[in-house]
């Protein structure tokens, strides 16, 4: 056992959530240590597997044009960004979670989202235009309500690495390949440090405040089966292999209150041939809104046009997992090939000149699939197709109607992309207040313990609006870092 050390604040994890807390704490004068169990090139949890953008309240073109300096002015003039208000953001979260998201925390995230964006900008990480979230209408690129126009330069990987770099430059000590083994608690029940293990050697590190931000249990097959249900131990992991849930268990062991949907997760459709772990963004298949989805029986099972993909993709993986063999096919005709997102270029589709031939190549029942397509085509109502809005172009009379963007599948060649489920993060976690303080089972703060990121529960129930996880991590991370630093300095009480 190595000699014990003392810091003001210890942060467990090194992702965007953890770094936001660490940077804020060190800016407030605290002596901060950030520990990460992964090696440096794999550090950062699921943040490394994001696009690097996040959902914020903004005024559209008049506000965001100034951040698009990575492209020439001539290109900027062809971009239209719809305004996104506080009411719209709050409503979107409540709508997709059926009103079950934590109200006070959601309000805080929404109200402070733009401030978090400005804070990230102040760190000089740089921005890229997120063209994959734009809809092409003629020569123009339209960012619809709630779309995410900007990514941090370098995407998720760039975001994570740059945040760690900023933390180090500001004075945070960072130790990679150092895992937390146990939270240390004093005789009064306050968290006073963490036992770490690095290269087989243990060490007790004491601190006035500990911030846990080490992700959920998406990469832990045992916990997935226990909490998400039968068969979830076999699901592909779209994100980090290091999010294995042990830090959540440590928090529960010292009295933290569990909250949120422990049986829920962010789970998307990904390329069937994707790696079992860590496939990342290139395996995403989110353009299903322009076609139809069928299972291995050749039948539709989901309203592909329920909403923009940013509001449905995170639940679609779970729905797909419940289909036969956990496999589905995204089917398109040639009218929409040029509308598919760039990630589709990473997968060779199954292509055919007739629906029957496509069914044979997919090894699904020919007559059933043919009937599915014929009935769908017959149900498509007349109207103008407009991918830049919820166009209301729908089907009528089907068991599962398509609500928007319904066009006939009738123009050869036809393409199908085999997909399966890929889990990104889990929804259940510990309960916190607006300062990021972890609450016990009586809703009282556990002195010295803070939490941020995916291991916090209560934000998402059943579904998730795309890009809202990172902004949650930034807002709550800064709150936790500020409060933890003040507690370490003796400036605040636990509640």
UniProtKB/TrEMBL annotation:
InterPro entries the record matches: FAD-dep_OxRdtase_2_FAD-bd, FAD-oxidoreductase_2, FAD/NAD-bd_sf, Succ_DH/fumarate_Rdtase_cat_sf
MF terms in GO: steroid dehydrogenase activity, acting on the CH-CH group of donors
Cofactor: FAD
Stated name of the protein: FAD-dependent oxidoreductase
Domain FAD-dependent oxidoreductase 2 FAD-binding, first and last residues per copy: 8-469
Pfam families: FAD_binding_2
Lineage: Bacteria, Bacillati, Bacillota, Bacilli, Bacillales
This protein's UniProt keywords: FAD, Flavoprotein, Oxidoreductase
Xref: SUPFAM superfamilies: FAD/NAD(P)-binding domain (SSF51905), Succinate dehydrogenase/fumarate reductase flavoprotein, catalytic domain (SSF56425)
């Amino acid at each position: 056992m190595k000699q014990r050390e003392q810091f003001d604040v210890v942060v467990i994890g090194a992702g965007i959530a953890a770094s936001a807390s660490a940077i804020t704490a060190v800016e407030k004068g605290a002596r901060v240590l950030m520990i990460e169990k992964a090696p440096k090139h794999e550090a950062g949890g699921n943040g490394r597997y994001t696009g690097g953008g996040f959902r914020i309240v903004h005024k559209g073109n008049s506000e965001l044009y100034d951040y698009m300096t990575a492209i020439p002015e001539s290109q900027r003039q062809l971009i239209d960004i719809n305004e996104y208000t506080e009411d719209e953001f709050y409503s979107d979260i409540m709508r997709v979670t059926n009103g079950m998201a934590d109200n006070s925390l959601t309000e805080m995230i929404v109200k402070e989202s733009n401030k978090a964006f400005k804070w990230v900008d102040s760190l000089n990480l740089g921005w890229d235009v997120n063209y994959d979230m734009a809809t092409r209408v003629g020569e123009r690129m339209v960012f619809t309500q709630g779309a995410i126009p900007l990514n941090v330069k370098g995407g998720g990987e760039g975001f994570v690495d740059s945040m760690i770099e900023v933390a180090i430059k500001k004075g945070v000590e960072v130790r990679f390949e150092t895992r937390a083994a146990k939270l240390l608690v004093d005789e009064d029940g306050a968290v006073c440090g963490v036992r770490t293990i690095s290269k087989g050697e243990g060490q007790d590190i004491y601190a006035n405040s500990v911030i846990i931000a080490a992700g959920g249990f998406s990469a832990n097959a045992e916990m997935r089966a226990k909490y998400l249900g039968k068969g979830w131990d076999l699901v592909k992991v779209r994100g980090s292999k290091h999010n294995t849930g042990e830090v959540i268990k440590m928090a529960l062991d010292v009295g933290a209150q569990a909250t949120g949907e422990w049986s829920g997760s962010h789970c998307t459709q990904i390329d069937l041939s994707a790696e079992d772990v860590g496939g990342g963004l290139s395996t995403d298949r989110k353009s299903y809104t322009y076609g139809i989805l069928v299972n291995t029986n050749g039948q539709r099972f989901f309203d592909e046009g329920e909403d923009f993909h940013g509001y449905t993709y995170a639940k679609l993986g779970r729905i797909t997992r419940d289909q036969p063999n956990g496999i589905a096919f995204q089917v398109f005709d040639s009218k929409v090939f040029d509308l598919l997102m760039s990630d589709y270029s990473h997968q060779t589709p199954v292509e055919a000149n007739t629906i029957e031939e496509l069914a044979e190549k997919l090894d699904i029942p020919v007559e059933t699939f043919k009937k599915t397509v014929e009935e769908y085509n017959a149900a498509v109502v007349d109207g103008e197709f407009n991918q830049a809005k919820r166009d209301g172009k729908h089907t009528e009379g089907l068991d599962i109607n398509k609500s928007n963007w319904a066009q006939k599948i009738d123009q050869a060649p036809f393409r199908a992309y085999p997909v399966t489920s890929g889990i990104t993060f889990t929804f259940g976690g510990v309960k916190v207040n607006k300062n990021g303080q972890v609450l016990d089972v009586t809703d009282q703060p556990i002195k010295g313990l803070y939490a941020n990121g995916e291991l916090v529960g209560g934000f998402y129930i059943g579904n998730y609006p795309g890009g809202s996880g990172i902004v949650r991590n930034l807002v709550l991370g800064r709150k936790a870092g500020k409060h933890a630093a003040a507690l370490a300095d003796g400036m605040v009480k636990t509640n």
